[in-house]
Write a structure and sequence with these properties.
Keywords: Lyase. The protein is an alpha+beta fold. It has four helices and five strands, in the order βαββαββαα. The chain has one domain: Hypothetical upf0131 protein ytfp (Roll), CATH 3.10.490.10.
Length: about 160
């Protein structure tokens, strides 16, 4: 009989298998959608040298991400700075057809900054590489959002 491990919803750099395996073992489950949230870069990370991904409550919007089974959250909690930088919380994650919902853990920035902080090129590339499993339209939306933050930085920075 197969034992099921806790579910983890990744929407940032942890969508990348190579980035996540630096932290923990995992089993890929599939992709999912969290409704009434949007992706934002609302915290600065010294490690990543730029803005890092977060989910922000936004009625009518959605965040796509990757679902994994993980053995536990000890290593992920450490990586994400839980509970001070990111806090782990449970969230409803829907399948691509929005027919089935599961409860998964994810991480949300504790002290959100506005305006958003542009991500570094390296971090953005890791995030976009992990997003290749998501819908084409969401990938384009993600790329456009990141590009707009870089443009704003050029004009204001």
């Amino acid at each position: 009989m197969r034992m099921y491990m806790p579910l983890y919803f990744a929407y940032g750099s942890c969508m990348s298998f190579s980035d996540l395996e630096r932290t923990t073992s995992f089993e890929y489950v599939g992709t999912g959608i969290v409704f009434d949230y949007r992706l934002a870069f609302s915290a600065y990370s010294r490690t990543r040298q730029g803005g890092v991904a977060d989910i922000v409550y936004a009625p009518g919007e959605k965040v796509e991400g990757v679902l994994f089974e993980v053995p536990d959250f000890k290593q992920l909690d450490k990586r994400e700075g839980h509970p001070n930088f990111y806090r782990r919380r449970e969230i409803e994650v829907w399948d691509e057809q929005a027919k089935t919902v599961r409860i998964a853990s994810t991480y949300e920035v504790v002290h959100k900054k506005t305006p958003e902080i542009p991500p570094s090129r390296e971090y953005a590339n890791i995030l976009l590489e992990g997003a290749k499993r998501l819908s084409k339209s969401y990938q384009k939306q993600l790329q456009a959002h990141i590009s707009s933050l870089w443009e704003k930085e050029k004009t204001t920075g």
